[in-house]
Amino acid sequence: MRTKRDFLDLADYSAAEILSLIERSAELKNGFPGPAGPKPLAGRVVGMIFEKPSTRTRVSFEVGIHQLGGQAIFLNAKDIQLGRGEPIKDTARVLSRYVDAIVIRTFGHHLLEEFAEWSTAPIVNGLSDLLHPCQILGDLLTVKEKGIDILNMKAAWIGDGNNVANSWITAANVLGFQLVLACPEGYDPGVPYDAVNIKLTRNPEEAIKDADVVSTDVWASMGQEDEADVRSKAFDGYRVDRRLMRLAKDKSYCLHCLPAHRGEEITDDVIEADYSLVWDQAENRLHVQKAVLEMLLKI
Q: How far apart are CA 263 and CA 267, in angstroms?
């Protein structure tokens, strides 16, 4: 019987495995478009359960599945019995008898974990409130393409200690690169950050100094809209602007996972600067997710 493996958290993978996924992502990127590309998902069906609205995650997964020769079935959580109170374990066991893998974009990370416990098909974390591993995998591919040594770089995170920040921490724990996060008090990351190569500060200038890569995200994520005013005050001074970017290395890059609130967490002139990689990031989600699905369905 095939041994199932899930993709919920980068911490479940070794440094060698993550580097291999990034390398395979680059190969797949260079192999498309074109009908002669590999079709490792031929005859496979991937279910996609989304509790949250999405642009990049949904489109990149659906296009990637199609490019790999597979078929995607989109399932709005409100339109299936899960949205009417069916137990997660029941939905997981039934769906995994129909499809070959399941991508889930959800609020609570516990839903992913319970789904993975009961599903016989691999589960992919398309985003949870705790972690966003596909995003960071794409980010690592993006900066590696620019010649940055992802094992020895300094990465800076400016803003909320959210799911993206948590996955940056996980990646730093596994790969060993230096990571400095600047988060306001009360908005710290939700995963442990006690490794010697990871530091938390309240000072954005300290975090960004001599950084190779600078990342940020919105101050109020989906589901936190009613906190927007409070968060705007708490994050005063955490905006990534040209003044702050000047403290990074001369040849540094800025990342944002999008969507961006221009003028809040990042200024328009930074997101449009020549050192901004946000569009490459968005594209590379497609390629890393292809590599993840290929890996999971090869087992």
A: 5
Say which of 134, 183, 254, 257 is annotated catalytic.
257
* Percent over 70 (pLDDT), the chain: 96
CA distance 58 to 200: 32
pLDDT digit string, tens, across residues 235-286: 999 999 999 999 999 999 999 999 999 999 999 999 999 999 999 999 999 9
- Catalytic one among 139, 217, 239, 256? 217
Q: How far is residue 222's CA from residue 230's CA, in Å, rounded to a whole number? A: 15
Check if 135 is active-site: yes
The yes-or-no answer on residue 257 being catalytic is yes
As to burial, measured by CB atoms within 10 angstroms (0-12 exposed, 13-18 middle, 19+ buried), residue 164 is buried
Give yes or no for a contact between 198 and 169, defined as CB atoms under 8 angstroms apart. Answer: yes
Prediction pTM value: 0.95
Is there a contact between 287 and 281 (Cβ–Cβ < 8 Å)? no
